[in-house]
Amino acid sequence: MKRLRGIAKAKGVEMTVRQGGSHEVVSFDGRKVTTVPRHNDINEYTARGAIKAAESFGKED
Question: Domain locations in the chain?
Answer without folding.
Answer: 2-55
